Amino acid sequence: MTTEFSTSEIDLVETKENYECVYEKPDTLTDIRFHYCPGCGHGTAHRVLMEVISELGIQEQTIGVAPVGCSVFAYQYMNIDMQEAAHGRASAVATGIKRVLPDKYVFSYQGDGDLAAIGTGETIHTINRGENILILFINNAIYGMTGGQMSPTSLANQVTSTSPYGRDVSFCGNPLKITDLIAHIPGAYYVSRHAVNTAGNVRKLKKAIKLSFEYQKLKKGTCFIEVVSNCPSGWKLSPRDSMQWIEENLFPIYPLGDIKVPTTNI
Length: 266
Description:
Layout lengths: L6 H11 L24 H15 L5 E5 L7 H4 L3 E4 L5 H11 L4 E7 H7 L1 H9 L5 E6 L29 H4 L5 H5 L5 E8 L3 H18 L5 E7 L3 H4 L3 H15 L3 E4 L6
Parallel strand pairs: 1-2, 1-3, 3-4, 4-6, 5-6
Antiparallel strand pairs: 5-7
């Protein structure tokens, strides 16, 4: 049996052979498909984090901690040593790991419903002690995994499954700008806020993550990076519209950029 190809199919094969590779999946990511909803920013954050670890050559020296939430299955995707933590307790678990294995690079990966709600106490005290870890804080202003409920970082008047008429600040309080709060704690060494809505912002996030791992070698305190992300499913928006919603609604409340920068040169 012979297979016949049309001229267009032959041209396509030849064109593919001449392609220039501009991106390859880092070896720090497994081949397992992400479970995240289409358009979710978690996948981008995962990729950038793992790219940095691969480029720094610290795959065997890095330990990550992921708690309950959308990132609960991070250990399936990150091809490094990972430890699961109870809801809100990732920074406490990361503290224990870093103290037992001080020469390892340790990070926690947490959402706003985790870090800024049930884990507020652990977060504040971890940073107050200046634990030498990186905390990655994914803020999409909603409980994404459990049904789109209002979180501490939900905006005033934001509609969620538990605030169908919008967040009433007179009853629920204002959005918690926990990253700004953390920046005032002496144990915080580097505090920065980034986003994954554009290629340019992703590059800035990658640079911040790389700096954080390099700062960790200095043993000067906690590095904290907030990542303003989207939740198309929780917000009831298309992925494209959710990116526009970030710019119009989240950035005015959570502006991007460095909040606390160390004076020590690397």
